[in-house]
Amino acid sequence: MTIRIGSATQGATCVYCHDALGKVGVSCPCGARYHEDCAAVFGACAIPGCGRPLAADLERWALPRLGTLAQLLRVDLEVNPALAGSSAVVCLHTPPRAVANDPRAAQAVANVLGPGHAAFDARLRLNTDFPEPLVRTASRLAADQVVGELQRAGLVAQAVGLADLLKPLETRDPREVELLPTQLSCVGADGERWAHYLDEPYLVMGASVFHVSRKHDRRYSTGHQGDRGGGARSTRSLHSHEVYSRDPAVFVYSSRDPVPSLLQRERLRTIHVPGSAGNRAENWLTLVKRLERGAAHNVTIRGANSPALRAPSRPGYPSDKSNLLGLLLVGRLHWLQWTQGGARGLKQG
Ligand SMILES: [Zn+2]
Ligand SMILES: [Zn+2]
Fold first, then answer.
1. Closest listed residue to residue 54, CA positions, set 92, 91, 14, 20
2. pLDDT, tens digit (0-9, with 9 covering 90-100), for 39-87
3. Which residue has the higher pLDDT, 150 or 115?
4. CB 83: neighbour CB atoms within 10 A?
5. How far apart are CA 314 and CA 307, in angstroms?
6. pTM for the whole structure
7. Distance separating the N- and C-terminal Cα atoms of the chain
8. 206 or 116, which is more confident?
9. How far does the centroid of ligand 2 lie from the alpha carbon of residue 39, in Å?
10. pLDDT at 1 over 50
11. Which domains are present in the chain?
C-alpha cells in the first residue's frame, strides 16, 4: 500500500481503498481521511503507528450492502493485520417470507442497524435471497448479543470474526473439467491441475454471473478535399454502449478451503462427463445435477440480479457492474455458516 503524504492531493483519496473522497468522509486526528463505508468496515486508522479507532463513540457500525462490502474486501490488509482485531460481523440469514414480512422482525433489524436506518432499510435486508452482513461490532461478545436480539425476533443470524471475512475474494477458474466417480478434475487456463474430492463433504452454490461492460468503438470519417483546397477534416468519434451478459455458474467449496472453484458455463472449454455423450449444454446440465446431488450443502441464489450484489461504480475497478464479487461474498458467508466459522466444525465424511 502506498501512503500519500503532503502535497495538494492529501485528503483527496481514502487511505483504505485509494478512491476519491467526496465531501462526506471520516477524518482521523492524524489527518488521514476515509469513506464512511471504509471506516465502518475496518474500524481503525490504517496509518502505521496511528491505528486510532474511527467513530469511537459507537458500539455498532452499520455495514454497506453486499456488493460494496465485497469490493472493499479487495483491500490488502497484509500491511496491518491487527486491524481486524477482535471485531466481529453479524450476518443475517435469509428468513422465510412470513418472518421477513413481520413488522417486529423489521424493527429488530432497524434497531441493530442503528440511528438513521428506518424499517424500510431493514425490510430491504430481510427480503433477499442471500445472507446480509448487518453490523460490525467491537468484540465477539457484542456480536453474540446482537445475534440474540435478532433471534428473539424469530431471525437466524450468525457472528463471524472480522478476520475471517477480511480476505480478498478469490476463485480458481477451470477451463476444462472432468467428472469422475469420486472427484471433479479441473485444469486451469495455464495448465494448472487440481481436484475436488466428491467423497468428502463439499458445498455447491448455483447462481448466474452477470456482467455489464461498456464497449467502445471508434468511428472515423475521412475528410474530403474541397474545391479551394480547404474542405472538411477527418473526424474521429467515440461511441459506447453497454453489453449485458448472464452466465450460469456453479461455485464448488471444500470444507477446508474458502476459495471456490468457479465453473462458468461459457468459460469452460471442455466439460467431460463420462456416460453423457450429449452436447455441451447437456453435459453442463448433467455436471450440475450430479454435483448438486452429491453435495453436503446445496445453495441456489435466485436473486442474482439484485442491485445489492453489485458495487457502485468506482474508478480503477474493471468490472464494477458485475455481481461476481457480491456472489463470492455470499458464498463465503454460506461457507462460514456451513463450517461454523471456518475454524471449527469441519465435517467428517
Ligand atoms: Zn474508501
Ligand atoms: Zn490516524
1. 14
2. 888 888 888 888 888 866 668 888 988 888 888 887 666 555 666 677 8
3. 150
4. 20
5. 15
6. 0.82
7. 42
8. 206
9. 11
10. no
11. 84-165 (3.30.1390.10), 174-225+233-338 (no CATH)
Report pLDDT digits (tens) over 227-283.
555 566 677 777 777 777 889 999 999 999 999 999 999 999 999 998 777 788 899
CA of 316 to the centre of ligand 1 (A): 13
CB 19 within 8 A of CB 35: yes
Cα of 304 to ligand 2 centre, how many Å? 38
CA 103 from centroid of its chain's CA atoms: 28
- The secondary structure element, H or E, covering residue 146 is helix 140-152
Going by C-alpha positions, the residue among 264, 175, 256, 261 that lies closest to residue 211 is: 264
The predicted pLDDT at position 77 comes to 62
Answer yes or no: are the C-beta atoms of 141 and 86 closer than 8 Å: no
Rounding to the nearest 10 degrees, give the CA dihedral for residues 251, 122, 69, 309. Answer: 40
Span 281-293, average pLDDT: 94
Q: Residue 347 corresponds to which cell in the numbers above?
A: 465435517
Residues with CB under 5 A from ligand 2 (ion): 28, 30, 32, 45, 47, 50, 52
Give me the residues paired with residue 135 across strands. Answer: 62, 90
Q: How far is CA 298 from the centre of its chain?
A: 19
Number of H helices, E strands in the chain: 9, 14
Q: Which residues of 107-131 are buried (b: 16+ CB within 10 A; e: fewer)?
A: ebbbbbbeeebebebbbbbbbbebb
**More confidently predicted of 75 and 106:** 106
